[in-house]
Amino acid sequence: MRSSFLFLAPALILAAATAPAASAQTTPMIAPDGTLLDITAEGRTTRVPDVATIRAGVMTQGQTAAAALADNATRMARVLAALKKAGVAPRDIRTATVSLSPQYRYADGQPPVVTGYQASNSVSVRFRDVAKSGAILDGLVGEGANQIDGPSLSIDQPEAARDEARVSAVKIARARAELYAKAAGLTVARIVLIAESGSNDGGTPPPMFYERSMKVSGTPTSVVAGEADVSVTLTVRFLLK
Fold first, then answer.
1. Higher-scoring residue by pLDDT: 129, 206
2. Which residue, among 61, 79, 75, has the nearest Cα to 123 in the 3D structure?
3. Given 16, 40, 48, 213, which residue has the most CB atoms within 10 angstroms?
4. Cα 203–chain centre separation
């Protein structure tokens, strides 16, 4: 948490930023009859993520581009059918990547030789029942998916949690302002300005991409939601007298 005092006279002055990590800035302002105190505070709350986003796809190879694409399309159709059978809504499925690239063999002193083609197709899938997402992924692998990326866990409607974090940030800033005011022999008169400088809606970045074998092991895949921090950072300016 950063804080800075601005002792101002009742005339036009230049106020310089005093935080060590910030570059110095000068801003002309009309000083009120008192002392300005800026407090930067972060408010937090927690929620259990209720949405898991996972990318699942198929990578295939063939001697020709057409063969690689045809094989890929057949396997991907089974993957999409498995998602539909599992009850995933069409609005929660969208194409993420489609690619086709030649594969080369390299030898010293010789130009590269095309040995075949590699096709890839993946979809981004949102699971609104996080607990079931692991079992569905196992089913997709059984239907031909050999690429899995995720999950990225998030909160479907984070605004209420962000509002709680905002209230918390204001309370923290107020308490810190009271502390500084008391130490300086002043009192907090009022809030002059509240500015929101950042927030975290509780989402988590997906882990690194990995591949799974076409053979599903006997142990089912588990996706555990846990808890996510929702945070908001505010800068609150107080007038001290």
1. 129
2. 79
3. 40
4. 4
